[in-house]
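Write out the 3D structure for:
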Amino acid sequence: MEYVYEKQKIEESIGEASKYGDNRDGFEAVREFLEDLKHSIDDPELLYDAINDNLIRMTFADMDEMSKDGALKILEKYQVDGQDRYESIAIPADVLNSYKDMFQKGGVMSTMVDVYQDRYSAENFVLSAMANNTINTMTSIIEFEKIFSGDPACYKWKNQKENTLVQFNIGDKPYTVSVHDIRDAHADKIKRLGGVLSPGQNLRTDYSKEAANKYKDADLKNTKYTTLTVNDINTSSQHVPFVRHMFLRQAFIDHIMTHKPDVSMDYINKLYQDKFFGQEWDKFKKVDPAAVKVINSRVANQINPYNIEDPEEDDGITVSDAQVVIRPSLYRKIRISLGQWTDDDETAYWILETSPDWMNDPELSKKVHMLQLFPLKMSYFQNSPYSISSGNTINRPIYNKMAIFPLFKF
């Protein structure tokens, strides 16, 4: 999709975009791509062929892995007339015999063969066993997991650090676009699984009269509350100059040790002294400007996550990410609902709320210090079917988590 978008931009720049109409917004090629994709999903035959081709590729990819030297090697890979072939060297004979029996009962193979003597006939059994293993793995792990954690496509992906260059022709002239290449499609999903699949604790909402009367003012049966949402606060770290200095010094030392392997360790150790490093760096900038440019570029990439040049453009560090501040009364109510509120906590809570000078009273202060005001960590997960086309749905996960801190007045 990124490719077709970038390609249309180039077509626009050279006046070759008339096929998209006159009133263009730059996303015509993307919409066309999505319409074609939707058509392939709605067409059972196209969808079947796409899934089948993918399963075949995955099966042969698994067979390649199982034929590599190592602890998992159970196949031997060889070639006949330039085509890859596989034979079993460690798959149990009874597994292959079960496929041989199925082939014979189905009329696929009429003669009995020894699964480890007839090399070419046994290839069919090996392929069937590996294909079943690949498909059953997808069913038992991927599809079963989707029931609980939703479709993996809904989670974030990690891209390669360097974009992939894709070439294409418009007429006889070649053009190149830069697109992101996916490095890992599962990292974010794996990161979330612990929170998504853990049972956790649910707040109690049903109370006996005795329990409700004990904390009558808390209104325990009322589950409504008022919220105020604050936009993300993106800002640079206060330690950017210090961190940049450390990265610059280390990049300079790495460069010296790489290009001057005979340099003494006494000199390297002295570079960790700020004054000496400053002097040597100033000299180096005059001697080798090209190397300075490379070092500065490396440091800029390293410092980027900690720095914001333009708050409107850069994401930077969200210092308020997943932080929630609540009133003491709501904090108390949640702790009661979790069964984590004691009589000592109740006593300390009311001292904090009603005695502004409690810190000057040794007895009251002692009672307040018994109150454990730990932050609460709330997670919410929803996994609901979502229709993407006629008769086709995906499980769309919604995951929300936050750290909740009570804010008392002083």
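The chain has a mean pLDDT of 84.
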